[in-house]
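Each letter names a residue; structure tokens follow underneath. Both lines appear below:
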Amino acid sequence: MELKVDELFREAMSHLASGVAVITARRPDGSPCGIAATSLVSYSPHPPSLLVCVWHESRCHDALAGCERFGVHLLRSDELELAHRFADRAARDKFAGLDWHWDGDVPELDGSLAYLRCRRAENFVRYDHTILIGDLQSGRLEAGDPLVYSRRRMDWLMQPMMP
């Protein structure tokens, strides 16, 4: 079956598994904001840095594009509800009722698989996204399995390899 290029792209990319993260920042008014993201990759080990893509229409876009520091929370396999909360474009206060605190000027969610505090090193605008490169400043790593996004679902679980 022949697909149009945009259909081919969406279908092919749906087969590419990725981890699910919540990216957080402080808005200029001092309130926290956050988005769910699957467009996140390690960028370089020297210095340790990562790259995340933020859609221009996201309500958190301007805060992330303009902040000095941001947080990356890699989600555990049991945090599907949290992923849906931060993916919800209509939710007004995504932090209401959550366990979180300020890590200096970065909102840190408690209990995620990993938390990485990053200093924004660079921004690039390309098409309908801003690409942020963040240098790792600090963080923490917890035990657990990652939440994985694949085939348009965020509930895939990593299974151990069979001997």
In short: The chain has a mean pLDDT of 90. The two ends are 37 Å apart (CA to CA). Residues 18-156 form a domain with the Pnp Oxidase; Chain A fold (CATH 2.30.110.10).
